Amino acid sequence: MTRATRVTPALCPFCAHTLDTMSDVVGSAKPAPGDWSICLRCAGLLVVGSDLRPVKPALGLYEAACAADSALAAKVTRMRRAVLIGAAVDPTPPPTRH
Predict the structure, then answer these.
(1) Which sign does the torsion angle of CA 1, 82, 35, 41 carry?
(2) Residue-wise over 14-38: b if at least 16 C-beta within 10 A, else e?
(3) What is the pLDDT of residue 58?
(4) CA-CA distance, 13 to 11, in Å (whole number)?
(5) What is the mean pLDDT of residues 48-57?
(6) What is the distance, to the nearest Å, from the Cα of residue 11 to the centroid of all Cα atoms in its chain?
(7) What is the 3-state secondary structure (H, E, C) of the chain?
(8) pLDDT at residue 57, rounded to an integer
(9) What does the pLDDT average to over 65-89?
(10) Greatest alpha-carbon span in the chain
C-alpha cells in the first residue's frame, strides 16, 4: 500500500470530493509540485500545484510529461483503472465458505 501525506483539504476539480491526503502516482508519500496524482473517488488526473493543492493539468502537460517519462502513462493508467474498478466493486467482503 502506498503511503500518503495529509494535506490541507482541497476539492477535486473534477468531482468536488474533499481531498485531504495525497501521494504521487509513482508512490512517493510526500508529493511535490508538478507530481501527478489521482482522485480516489472519480479517478480524475491531477497535478500537484505549487501550493500542494491538486489542480487540473494544463492542456498538453500530461502528454509532455509522458514524452519525458515513458513509464508515466502506464503507471497512471494502472492507477486510474484500479480506482475505477474499486468504485464499481461492492466493498462488502464475500461470505467465507466452511
Answers:
(1) negative
(2) eeeeebeebbbbeeeeebeeebbbb
(3) 93
(4) 6
(5) 90
(6) 13
(7) CCCCEEEEEEECCCCCCEEEEECCCCCCCCCCCCCEEECCCCCCEEEECCCCCEECCCCCHHHHHHHHCCCHHHHHHHHHHHHHHHHHCCCCCCCCCC
(8) 93
(9) 85
(10) 54
Residue type, 13: P
Q: How far apart are CA 77 and CA 32, in angstroms?
A: 20
Segment 28-55 mean pLDDT: 87
**Other Cβ atoms within 10 Å of 87 Cβ, number:** 12
Residue 82 pLDDT greater than 70, yes or no: yes
Of 25, 75, 19, the closest CA to residue 47 belongs to 25
Q: Which residues pair with 18 in a beta bridge?
A: 11
